[in-house]
Write a structure and sequence with these properties.
The chain has about 160 residues and is of the alpha+beta class. Helix content is about 40%, strand content about 15%.
Amino acid sequence: MGRSRGGFGSKFHLVTDGDGTPLAVEVTAGQVHESTRVESVVGQAVACLIGRRRQRRKRRHKPRKLAGDKGYSVQRVRDWLTDQRIEPVIPHKDNQAARHDPTVWFDRLAYRGRCVVEHCIGWLKEFRRIGTRFEKLAVNFHEMLQLAMIRRYLRLLF
């Protein structure tokens, strides 16, 4: 638990595929900015996808686009995603010059797919232990998130 504006809190950073299946999750303190965890969480998700796809196609598989909210609108994140050959679909903040530049194009249609992540977070928070954060240790909270994700996988399979 870390200090945030509302007091003590925590965040979990989640990556899902286009269908809302959770791929990777990471827990941080409440004061940690979202953009600091992009590389590790997306790296875990890509490793998950590579393991799943490699058995079938024998080639590396990465997402073509990654949608995020304005908290991820940092040039470092955009550059890292471009280096990974992933197109960032992140809206610019109101105080950034690129937001008011007509030459910068933003894919609104692809950004609408970000609601899938919000639906997955809402589904995970239906579990009382996750929604109210009963666990005081980040390790235990992360494990409860993992159990909820496993339950989601099982529901999708059966």
